[in-house]
């Protein structure tokens, strides 16, 4: 897949921007805060329906504007398609494909992007929500229909939690709250689908993760990836050990889910929150048999974070009919030592299109500096071959 052209209106610090891109490496160079990452963020939105920097869409709308528009022309082989999304400060976003209105959730069917940024270090070092978000954004690219499943699960979760809070405020006991059973059924049905998809993803990522880690780190530290599930009785969100149910069937997971909800009902009513489900699970990453979070060195943590993104790209490339995903490296070379820079550049150069952002041109390995685009204060100043 190739991004041929990007157009922005009232997106971040861009009033208007038009950028032509080419196959192979495209490097955006400019001082910090000029808008380089905003270009990467805009391209990535089509694939994940979200930002790698913020959890809501409003910050992406330029100050003083009610909506932002992102347009991109993509080429898949000999075929080109125009995608457009309007991000609204209030109300639902809108999308078009080839000029025809579509649901926003249709966009990832046409766009596959793997974006690595310094913030990705938080995937391995931060709380479980960062790792869940990584997995779920990759799942949407892998199976776009899951965007609807995640949205439905979040809606049911909010409604069930609201009921728990209301019951807590009124002092209602669990056995007197029959309406909770209805929401339990919906939570289990949707949550089981999410858990099954996540388990399959971890299994499929295992081999490409191992290959990518060895290529980046220059050593095999036996990286491992597995889910800790709250349906097993623990609470990974609160550092309690959850069950690893990688071999469980959907029926077994649903049974565990329902039993855990029953066991935790009193605690849920006491606290007014839903304590069981995929929103409490954690993606556990290990090297040398130890959890990356809390045990890995700085270099190992960077290697794992890079490897997760490269493994994602490898997986999408193997499964997709769209060609290679676009690989975006957002301000990462400045964070890496010389050896990792060279290794990453070698791996990245194998993709159909690579987009790199950097504050200092010299930070980017020479092999990726085929085309330089200068960015300053929300303006594209020039594009020159070097």
From TrEMBL:
Give the UniProt subcellular location, in the record's own words. Cytoplasm
Q: Which GO terms describe its molecular function?
A: ATP binding; single-stranded DNA binding
* Cross-referenced InterPro entries: DNA-binding_RecF (IPR001238), DNA-binding_RecF_CS (IPR018078), P-loop_NTPase (IPR027417), RecF/RecN/SMC_N (IPR003395), RecF_2 (IPR042174)
Sites where the protein binds ATP: 30-37
Instruction: Mark the transmembrane ranges.
Output: none
Segments forming domain RecF/RecN/SMC N-terminal: 3-360
Q: Which GO terms describe its biological process?
A: DNA replication; DNA synthesis involved in DNA repair; double-strand break repair; SOS response
* Name of one Pfam family that matches: SMC_N
UniProt keywords, alphabetically: ATP-binding, Cytoplasm, DNA damage, DNA repair, DNA replication, DNA-binding, Nucleotide-binding, SOS response
Q: Its principal location?
A: cytoplasm
Recorded GO cellular component terms are: cytoplasm
> Record's SUPFAM superfamilies?
P-loop containing nucleoside triphosphate hydrolases (SSF52540)
* Membership in a protein family: Belongs to the RecF family.
Known role: The RecF protein is involved in DNA metabolism; it is required for DNA replication and normal SOS inducibility. RecF binds preferentially to single-stranded, linear DNA. It also seems to bind ATP.
Q: What is this protein called?
A: DNA replication and repair protein RecF
- The organism is Microbacterium lemovicicum
The uppermost taxa in this organism's lineage are: Bacteria, Bacillati, Actinomycetota, Actinomycetes, Micrococcales
């Amino acid at each position: 897949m190739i991004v041929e052209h990007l157009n922005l209106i009232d997106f971040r610090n861009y009033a208007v921007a038009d950028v032509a891109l080419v196959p192979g490496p495209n490097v955006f160079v400019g001082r910090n805060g000029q808008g380089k990452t905003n270009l990467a963020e805009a391209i990535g939105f089509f694939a994940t329906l979200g930002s790698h920097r913020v959890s809501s869409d409003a910050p992406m709308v330029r100050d003083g504007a009610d909506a932002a528009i992102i347009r991109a022309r993509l080429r898949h082989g000999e075929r080109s398609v125009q995608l457009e999304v309007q991000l609204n400060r209030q109300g639902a976003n809108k999308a078009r494909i080839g000029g025809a209105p579509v649901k926003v959730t249709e966009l990832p069917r046409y766009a596959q992007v793997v974006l690595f940024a310094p913030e990705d270090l938080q995937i391995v070092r931060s709380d479980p929500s960062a790792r869940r978000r990584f997995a779920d954004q990759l799942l949407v690219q892998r199976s776009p229909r899951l965007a609807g499943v995640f949205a439905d699960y979040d809606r049911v979760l909010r409604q069930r939690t609201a009921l728990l809070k209301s019951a807590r405020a009124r002092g209602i006991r669990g056995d007197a709250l029959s309406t909770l059973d209805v929401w339990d059924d919906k939570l289990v049905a949707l949550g089981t689908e999410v858990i099954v998809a996540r388990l399959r993803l971890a299994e499929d990522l295992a081999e490409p993760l191992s290959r990518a880690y060895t290529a980046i780190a220059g050593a095999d530290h036996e990286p491992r990836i597995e889910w800790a599930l709250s349906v097993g009785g623990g609470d990974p969100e609160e550092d309690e050990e959850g069950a690893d149910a990688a071999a469980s069937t959907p029926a077994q997971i649903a049974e565990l889910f329902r039993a855990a909800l029953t066991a935790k009902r009193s605690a849920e009513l006491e606290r007014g929150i839903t304590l069981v489900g995929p929103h409490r699970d954690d993606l556990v990453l290990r090297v040398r048999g130890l959890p990356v979070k809390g045990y890995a060195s700085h270099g190992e943590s960077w290697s794992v974070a890079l490897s997760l993104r490269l493994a994602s790209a490898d997986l999408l490339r193997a499964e997709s009919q769209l060609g290679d995903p676009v690989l975006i490296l957002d301000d990462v070379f400045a964070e890496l030592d010389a050896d990792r820079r060279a290794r990453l550049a070698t791996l990245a150069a194998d993709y159909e299109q690579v987009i790199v952002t950097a504050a200092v041109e010299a930070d980017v390995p020479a092999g990726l500096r085929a085309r330089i685009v200068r960015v300053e204060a929300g303006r594209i100043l020039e594009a020159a071959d070097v």
